[in-house]
Every structure is written in C-alpha cells, then in structure tokens.
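Notebook B, p. 112. Complex prediction, attempt 2.
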Amino acid sequence: MDSRLIAPYINSTINMLKDMTGIEITSTSEPQNDSGEFVSQGVSSAIAFSGKIKGKFLIDLSPQLAKAVICQMTGETMEDLKDRLFLSGISELNNTIAGDANTFLNNTYALSLRLAPPIVFSGSGITVSSSNIETVTVLCNTEYGEMKVNIGFQGGAF
Amino acid sequence: MDMKLVNPFIVAVKSVLEQFGLSDIKQQVVQQKEELIIKKEVTAYIGVVGDLQGNVAYSYSVETAKQLASTMMMGMPVEVLDEMIKSALAELANMFAGNSSPLFEMQNLTIDVTPPSLVVGDDIFFILSFHDAVTVVLETSLGEIEVNIELEV
C-alpha cells in the first residue's frame, strides 16, 4: 500500500493517544500486509470513509490497554469490556484519531474523504474480514499492552 | 428516524434477495432505538457518507449466514464460514447498500457507501450507534435478517 496513506494514521494514533490519555506508544512495527481476516485482541473500533478513494481504519486494543485508556480518559476504573460507557470511550478515541489523520490526508492530497461514524465492539474470538480492499496492520506497543492499527484502502493507492 | 430514510435500505435488501430467488420475505417489526446494540453473531456493516451520514449493518445468525451464502452460490453447501464465504457475505452487504443508492436519488439524496466489513464472533458485544437508530427484522425462509440503520441527516 502507498506509504503516504499509512503514515498519517500512525502519526495520529501516536499523537492522539498521548493527548487524550497520556499513554505513549514506545515502538511500532513495520506495516504488515494482511492476508484474509483480522483477529481482534478484545476491544475494537472501526471507522469507514469515502471520497476520491474508499477505505477503513480500525484500532484494536488488548483488554489491559483498553482499561488503561478508559481509566486515563475518565478517571474511573472500569473492568467490564461490555459496558456502553467503556466502549463509548474507545469509539471516541478512534473518532479523534481517524478525524485527525483524514484531515491531514484531505489537506495534503485533496482526497475529500468523509467519515462515517465509528462502530465499536468487544468480546473474544472476533474476526473482521473485508472484501476487495488492501489492508495493512501496524503493531503499536505501550507499557499497558499492544494496540493494533489496521488501515485499508481500495486499490491501496490514489 | 424518518421511515423515508429507512425504506430504501429495506426495499434494496428485498430486491437483492428476490434476485437470488427468495420471494417470501416478511417485514416483521421496526424497532426505533435510542442506541443500537447488535446481538447476532454475524454482521456485515457499511458506512454511508454524502447527504446522509451513518452506518448500515446486516446481521444474521451463523446458520442464516451460511444459508444466505449457499443461496448466493447456487445452492452449493456451506459448512463453515471460511474466508471465501465471509468475502461473499461482505459482497452481499455491498449489493444491499449499493442498491439503495438509486432509491435515495429518487428523494434527491446522494449517498456514497464505503467498502463492507464482516464481523463474526460468538461472544460479541457490538454497538452500532450511541444515538437514535432503527432495526428492521425481515423474516425469510433462511431465517431472520436484521437491518440495523443509524443515520445523521
């Protein structure tokens, strides 16, 4: 996939996670091309968009990291991954990251991307599959656990 | 939510299913919800942007999903939801949503749909929307199809 479509999401993930929660991403992997389906670690939020190119962005957090994120955002300890307030926080994090990255892409490359609202889910053994879209995953490490960032664009370039 | 914005999605689903030979489709209930939590195991969702902004999600039990995929593939038996079957179910959602576009145009509304994704899990808590949304349940010979719609105008 065109690296110009990947870097903004990684930068926004690092910056917005730190701004909203104070949690730092200590290292990131090289983007891995996905073959087939994406397996969730426990808590995920996805957002789809369309403009001159169509795509989607998904964040996936380990339960431990998701709890740390919510604790930092709300000041409260929440243990239930199937609580609507808990998932609302994860959804808001995704909305902020994707909004920031898409604004950068629109301003820099005039892609006219418009975002649909985020969806969010949690549970165990959840898989996410796409049709006719090229996706890459970047692993982001934090002191609380791993976050996977999954970026997909139809055709993989613009 | 205004049913004028819901109906094109439902008409499109019925029309696509009829093309696959499913004719006995009954609209069971329309549920207006303050937030929309999906409980079925298989959900294909698509984002909507343009004059309307939101998501539409088509949800099934695993058994209904298998039967739908089988129907799409001319009756080929489907035992498991493997990668090919999941891709087919994502494509079915694309057909459902894509067929609603011209129906919205008749209301002078232009919508653009995003690529579909298919989410599968036995143990899943899936929130499509934290605000007003609608679920329409369609009863078919293959089982229940839930059409879950959240839209911001």
